[in-house]
Amino acid sequence: MPNIQQQKERFLAIVREHIHRKGAEELIKGLERTDFFTAPASTKYHGAYPGGLCEHSLDVWEYAQSLKFLSPEPINDESLCIAALFHDLCKLNFYKPGKKNQKINGVWKEVDCYTVEEAIPFGGHGSKSVYLLQRFMPLKVEEAVAINCHMGFSDATPGQVGSISSAFKKYPLAWIIHVADEAATYLLNRDPPES
Q1: Which of 40, 67, 76, 159 has the highest CB neighbour number within 10 Å of its CB?
Q2: How many domains does the chain have?
Q3: Does the pLDDT value for residue 75 go beyond 50?
Q4: What SS3 state is found at 109?
Q5: Residue 90 CB partners (closer than 8 Å, separation 6+)
Q6: In a domain, 194, yes or no
Q7: DSSP type of residue 20
Q8: Cα–Cα distance between 37 and 12 in angstroms, integer?
């Protein structure tokens, strides 16, 4: 499991180094009032442990840094940082500790888990993250599109498939964040510890 304090310090150092937009300090103060640095990234998959959300965001940043060189046009570093680190703001104050019954070695036991408690039922995964981020700082179109489309086709309704393809083609940042998110989710093998 991650060292939460070290991760937090690294996250804040990256934000302060790469993001110089009006509202960045207010965003940091806003994050301090949430569970962002201690929250899991999911209920039972990648990062389903304390600090998993921040760790996942940092992982997406790392992958995005290496993927930006595949773009046919230069990728703005500040935009890359904003989209990578804040693509999952929708998960703020979203997961709550709970208990569930689980069969372990043939015996039912009560184990710790995370449950979902939706405080702000707003749109989909990406659109809620865009909404929350824009409460602190203005976003460029390509940043908003990248965050909104980071789930790719897995989060799309049948009518949205064409618009996601168009987003990836028009805004390389959107494709980069999507692929970085997928890589951070599936390639790092950071599943929760066994109960």
Answers
A1: 40
A2: 1
A3: yes
A4: strand
A5: 125, 126, 128, 129, 132
A6: no
A7: -
A8: 10
